[in-house]
Design goal:
The chain is mostly helical. It has two domains: 123 residues, UbiA prenyltransferase (Tetracycline Repressor, domain 2, Orthogonal Bundle); 126 residues, Four Helix Bundle (Hemerythrin (Met), subunit A), CATH 1.20.120. It has 13 helices and no strands. It starts with 12 loop residues before the first helix and ends with a helix. Belongs to the UbiA prenyltransferase family. Protoheme IX farnesyltransferase subfamily. It is an enzyme of class 2 (transferase). InterPro entries: Protohaem_IX_farnesylTrfase, UbiA_prenyltransferase, UbiA_prenylTrfase_CS, UbiA_sf. It is a multi-pass membrane protein.
Length: 323
């Protein structure tokens, strides 16, 4: 049943709007938009059409919001059981599931229309595939049935990287898929660090997250493995693909070193929730700064400065060799 027997509990229109806004889980969306924007800047060699950027980010926001609304409807039973989610609009009775469903469909349709008209059909279809994958594969098939839920389901969170590239080029290149792979490999350490902190909530509602089923030691070992993978993969944008340069490489190495250090510390202390919290928070900062590095590295002025610096270094080396 999509309906709920609890009447909406609002005093005014502003509270209604707030409840619908909360349905979209807005804190999750900015990170998805950052990967979209980074992908667009890289695809456009640092010269993105401002209107296309705006439309793609708005369309991506609507698609992500739609997916989160559908997720809230599907998970309303476990949201009611978990203390941290009990006050969400549907389990608290502020919004009926029927109304939320119409809201989610409306957001999805608006996203598809906007991206089709102002970007291209491939971009719109990729955004819709993100909704389908998140709901059909992750939420329905994986989340409640396998410890690998977040690994496979992580593909949904990586799709925005493809959306951004397709919006600029109308196709998907190896660079786009490598960006997808970076986000895909980053997701398990990011989410499992959170799962370590709230494993009791997941255990209470029977969600087989890795810390619940296999314990902290196995989880921190998996976090370490995926962190070991994501750091070198992030450097493949420099070699062999050659789509990023020295500045991005320096940023990626610095950020990756800190990521590895925190994952190693957690591996040595699997039951330390403060270390898990630190890793979780840093993983967000890591992705934000890595994407910022992609953007800055792609700018024409960065290319010019790098070329100028390279010429001066070569001239200095040549002068020294003549001494």
């Amino acid at each position: 049943m999509l309906g709920t027997t609890v009447s909406p509990q609002h005093d005014n229109l502003w509270q209604v709007l707030q409840s619908y806004y909360q349905l979209t889980k807005p804190r999750i969306i900015p990170l998805l938009l950052i990967t979209t924007a980074a992908s667009m800047w890289m695809a456009a060699d640092g010269q993105v059409d401002p209107l296309l950027l705006l439309v793609t980010l708005v369309g991506g926001t609507l698609a992500a919001a739609s997916a989160q609304v559908f997720n809230c409807i599907y998970d309303r039973d476990i949201d009611y059981e978990m203390l941290r989610t009990r006050h969400r609009p549907i389990p608290s009775g502020k919004i009926q599931s029927r109304d939320a469903l119409l809201f989610g469909i409306g957001l999805g349709c608006l996203s598809f229309t906007l991206l089709t008209v102002f970007a291209n059909l491939l971009t719109a279809l990729l955004a819709m595939s993100g909704i389908v994958f998140y709901m059909g594969i992750y939420t329905h098939l994986l989340k409640r049935h396998t410890v690998q839920n977040i690994v496979i389901g992580g593909a949904a969170g990586a799709i925005p990287a493809l959306v951004g590239w397709a919006a600029v080029t109308g196709e998907l290149s190896w660079a786009a898929w490598l960006l997808f792979a970076i986000v895909f490999l980053w997701t398990p350490p990011h989410f499992w660090a959170l799962a370590l902190m709230i494993r009791e909530d997941y255990a209470k509602v029977g969600i087989p997250m890795l810390p619940v089923v296999e314990g902290e030691e196995s989880t921190t070992r998996q976090i370490w493995i995926y962190t070991l993978l994501v750091v070198p993969v992030s450097l493949m944008l420099i070699y062999p693909l050659g789509v990023s340069g020295f500045l991005y490489g320096a940023i990626a190495i610095l950020l990756g070193s800190i990521f590895l250090k925190k994952a190693w510390q957690l591996l040595q202390n699997p039951t330390d929730n403060q270390l898990a919290r630190s890793l979780f928070k840093y993983s967000i900062l890591y992705m934000m700064l890595l994407c910022t590095g992609i953007v800055v590295d792609s700018l024409p002025i960065t290319h010019q400065l790098t070329a100028l610096l390279t010429d001066k270094v070569e001239m200095s080396i040549a002068a020294m060799s003549r001494l």
